[in-house]
UniProtKB/TrEMBL annotation:
Signal peptide: none annotated. Keywords: ATP-binding, Ligase, Nucleotide-binding, Purine biosynthesis. It catalyses: 5-amino-1-(5-phospho-D-ribosyl)imidazole-4-carboxylate + L-aspartate + ATP = (2S)-2-[5-amino-1-(5-phospho-beta-D-ribosyl)imidazole-4-carboxamido]succinate + ADP + phosphate + 2 H(+). GO terms for biological process: 'de novo' IMP biosynthetic process; cobalamin biosynthetic process. This is Phosphoribosylaminoimidazole-succinocarboxamide synthase. It is an enzyme of class 6 (ligase). Its EC number is 6.3.2.6. Pathway: Purine metabolism; IMP biosynthesis via de novo pathway; 5-amino-1-(5-phospho-D-ribosyl)imidazole-4-carboxamide from 5-amino-1-(5-phospho-D-ribosyl)imidazole-4-carboxylate: step 1/2.
Length: 244
């Protein structure tokens, strides 16, 4: 059950600060508060900027989409919305893997394999990336995961199954709102009860295309200097909020 605002513990010490979020401890050792920043980065931090209202929008979009995938049977770390641009979440041990699910050719998949951008894939492609900023988050395979001791084979099976379940749920849900889920990045965390979907699901971590125009409504607008970045994030939230 979601907590009321009065039940949400206040921020404690800062545990971690990344490019897009700050994680704070709370008085409950099993819970953290996640603050979503307006900062924007791309190309491994080589491009930096600020997107107005991004933190508030990403927090709300993430909470909304976490609830969608929870309804489809995928457990997440979300506990409650904790303010204008914060979430209250279960504290997890993040597995240093970025799990990317691709439905349509775009971005690095097109560049690496010489495929035509916009081509719809016959089945989703799941890719694994080693979460190491100093190495540029390299693409790895299951053998590398074993070599590095990042996850057990059983955990990896579960992670890939959860990622595909998220994809199935979100593709249908977003299509009903005239959004194409092109691809997206997920992160997972360990708890004493097993694995949870963690991090966020937002225009920072997903490619959303308008179904009619093909226009990107995500961070690609920042990466590619297309303009209208804040409006794109707001449009995603408008479509989700309208049918909440």
């Amino acid at each position: 059950m979601e907590r009321r605002q009065a039940e949400i513990p206040p921020r404690g010490e800062r545990l971690y600060e990344g490019k897009a979020k700050v994680v704070y401890a709370t008085s409950d050792p099993g819970l953290v508060r996640i603050y979503f920043k307006d900062d924007a980065t791309a190309f491994d931090g080589r491009k930096r900027g600020t997107i107005g209202n991004k933190g508030r929008l990403n927090a709300r979009i993430s909470a909304h989409l976490f609830r969608v995938v929870e309804a489809a049977g995928v457990p997440t770390h979300l506990v409650a919305v904790a303010g204008e641009q914060e979430l209250l979440a279960r504290r997890v041990e993040i597995i240093p893997l970025e799990v990317v699910v691709r439905n349509v050719v775009a971005g690095s998949l097109a560049r690496r394999l010489g495929l035509e951008p916009g081509r719809v894939l016959e089945e989703p492609v799941v890719e694994l990336y080693y979460k190491r900023d100093d190495l540029g988050d390299p693409l790895i395979n299951r053998a590398h995961v074993r070599l590095l001791g990042l996850a057990t084979p059983e955990e990896l099976d579960r992670i890939e199954a959860m990622a595909l379940a998220v994809n199935r749920a979100l593709r249908v849900y977003l299509a009903q709102r005239d959004l194409i889920l092109v691809d997206f990045k997920l992160e997972f965390g360990r708890t004493g009860d097993g694995l949870l979907l963690a991090d966020e699901i937002s225009p920072d971590t997903c490619r959303f295309w308008d179904r009619e125009t093909g226009e990107p409504l995500d961070k690609d607008r920042f990466r590619r200097d297309l303009g209208g970045v804040e409006d794109a994030y707001a449009e995603v939230w408008r479509r989700l909020e309208a049918t909440a």
